[in-house]
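re: ur question from yesterday

yeah so i grabbed the chain u mentioned. its 79 aa long if i counted rite. heres the sequnce exactly as i have it in my notes:
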Amino acid sequence: MRPFFDDEECTEVRSYTKSELARLYSPNAKYESAIRMLNRYLNRCRELMAELTRLGYRPADRRFTRPQVERIFYYLGEP
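ran it thru and got these structure tokens back, copy pasting raw so excuse formatting
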């Protein structure tokens, strides 16, 4: 029997623009709404925001680095 996680599709951990990541987490939302929701998810998790800040994230950034995406996936789960 194969392990449980082999059948699941995994999201690639790589650099994403804010809009790409927002669309992954909210695929049915409009562009602006998806970004607002992503920002809300990020701001509600203080530990995540502390990690992202430590990794150089600023709210005005348009792209998340690979290490930042790893932390987002860790705290919010994969989209």
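noticed a couple things. Residues 1-7 have pLDDT under 50 and may be disordered. also The first strand starts at residue 16 and ends at 17.
anyway ttyl
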